[in-house]
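Lecture 7 notes: from sequence to structure.
We start with the chain below.
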Amino acid sequence: MFNESLEHKALKELAKQFLNEMGCADITEEYPLIGNVSTKGSRRVDVIGFINEKALVVECGGNKDKHLSAVSNKVDELYLLPYGETQPYRYKENMKVCYHCGHTIKMGVEDG
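Predicted structure tokens for the same chain:
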């Protein structure tokens, strides 16, 4: 297993609450979505829930673009819950996201 921060665990609790409020059933943490979790190229999602035969996923904290793209192609709806936030936002294909915190990156904005 991996070493998970208390902050990340707290985000997963908020994610489960969000999916429950959306009407999801069978809400599960650390769900192996693509391949075996121990193999290269596998994808495990933080929290998943199911509603009306649709899979809704919430990824917590930061994630790499490659992971988000792969997951978004396998589920019906993908939401991101960045560090420091209490409400997820819906991920859209080709959206740029900070892999450290999970907030969106506005293109063309230089660091000051």
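Points to note: The first helix runs from residue 6 to 21. The chain has one domain: 6-90.
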